[in-house]
Amino acid sequence: MASPTDNPIVLDPYVSDLEGERERLYEAGPIAWVELPGGVRTWSVTHHQAARELLTDSRLSKNMAHWGAYNRGEISPTWPLLSVIPPTPTNLLGTDGAEHKRLRTLTAQAFTPRRVEKLRPRIREITEELLDALEERANEPQDLKSEFSFKLPMRVIGELYGVEEAAHGQLRSLYDKFFSSVTPPEEFLATREALVQFYTELMERKKANPGDDLTTALLQANENGDRMTDEEVLGTLQIVVAAGHETTVNLLTNTVRALLRFPDQLELLRTGKATWEAAIEESLRWDPPTTNFIFRFATEDIEYGGVTIAKGDSVMISYGAIGRDRGQHGDNPEVFDVTRKTSSRHISFGYGPHVCPGAPLARLEAQVALPMLFERYPDMKLAVDDSELVPNPSVIVNSLKEFPVILRP
């Protein structure tokens, strides 16, 4: 009798057929056996309800000390996807239970709905500045991702954490390599070290000259006498700055792409028959900023969905496939529909104790920036055919290399 692990679904690092891959994963679910770039195999959760249950299952740990394949020496230390797995449990991504709650309490206070809402005027101001800057070349092709989708969230998160604007380009280059599934081994190691060096130097500057920013706040955070170690602050900075801009870059780009591809949906927004909030949630479901999120590790055997997740196995969450769940989103989840009633019940920002703390900020940036963009440039169109857009080579983040548009055709 064939084993569920005999024929894994091989994920393409160059993302040549993202839609087909999502469908194959969903059809193989609720738990599918997949092969990641580099020959690393893992379980993938591909259905909505399964993700909700397993993301709250205490038998799945974020601590890679439970990863059997790594402990057996089967994972190369230069495997590029190790970049998103904390080697030691010193930040939000690598901890569980009380330790995770402790770090989240010290970190997530910056992203409460009330504090995020106070950023609305500044987000609007930055958006206005960026839209003004686009005017100079409005009637010729320009890369909306580089000039708008990237700059807005990077400036917002940079101002929050005291990262100078002059360093934004350097961080973009480093994170492109950091999230790539095809970064050469020697470049992967150099990129990881460069990011550590960048945030170490940022911390040292803030220790010497404290400012009104969240890096200073993390270094000085004190919850009933509990303070974060330098290693914990470093790990937290690496996560929040990466997630604080990358997710929003992709949310903005993917939503604009969908609305240009389906002008009937854009018309619903212009005529008030649908809201921007609904369009953003549908975009998050239909084309989520994160394709797959790795890893959790089984601390004991887990029976689920007709398979056994063995102790030491790794488990990832496939948000692209989950957004295609018929049981959750109806019979036509492949259709982009801003009036879909189930879009608000997606889990593209995660679920359970590890749900993305920056989700309110990402949503606010999109809710402010997208209406302003389309109001300023109502006739915007792609500068190439949609089929010519090239994805970044990553099985983790769902992003484009470039997004060329003509703002005033």
TrEMBL record:
It holds the Pfam family p450. InterPro entries: Cyt_P450, Cyt_P450_B, Cyt_P450_CS, Cyt_P450_sf. SUPFAM superfamilies: Cytochrome P450. Keywords: Heme, Iron, Metal-binding, Monooxygenase, Oxidoreductase. The keyword Glycoprotein does not apply. GO terms for molecular function: heme binding; iron ion binding; monooxygenase activity; oxidoreductase activity, acting on paired donors, with incorporation or reduction of molecular oxygen. Belongs to the cytochrome P450 family. This is Cytochrome P450.
